[in-house]
Design a protein that fits this description.
Structural class: mainly alpha
Shape: extended
Radius of gyration: 26 Å
Order of helices and strands: HHHHH
Distance between the termini: 74 Å
Number of helices: 5
């Protein structure tokens, strides 16, 4: 191979390929809030207290529990309330599945730790139990 051939080494990027970078940090999200839509500093502090999903979940819980379909005047409002109730049920199902997946992953990891090093498993379980005892005392 001739050493001067490294000069002719073109880099070709086809559509939807190549080096792509995207800023997905929370700061990038809050820079996207238009000044007329709110104060970014306040929005960020509120988001740090409770995410938009958490805030929306609280609103859905209150609306579904506080308002019955008979209290709404229009069919559109009753349909929207029914949609909120369905969304609430779906969210609970998703959360339940996520909790089950995490528990199964934790059990699989503990099984692996037990197979590799039973002493490490004892140490992990003792630390967890000590933490639980502290919570019960307070």
């Amino acid at each position: 191979m001739f050493p001067w051939l490294w000069i002719f080494a073109p880099t070709t990027y086809w559509p939807l390929s190549g080096a792509v970078s995207q800023d997905l940090t929370p700061e990038a999200f809050f820079r996207g809030i238009r000044p007329g839509a709110g104060v970014p500093g306040i929005e960020k502090q509120v988001f740090e207290q409770a995410s938009y999903g958490k805030q929306l979940g609280w609103l859905i819980d209150v609306m579904v529990d506080a308002i019955g379909p008979d209290e709404l005047r229009s069919a559109e409002a009753r349909g929207s309330l029914a949609s909120l109730a369905k969304l609430q049920a779906k969210i609970e199902r998703i959360k339940s599945e996520h909790r089950q997946d995490r528990a199964e992953a934790a059990i699989a990891l503990l099984d692996q730790i037990e197979a590799d090093s039973p002493e490490e498993l004892k140490r992990v379980l003792l630390r967890y139990q000590a933490g639980r005892e502290l919570v019960r005392r307070t």
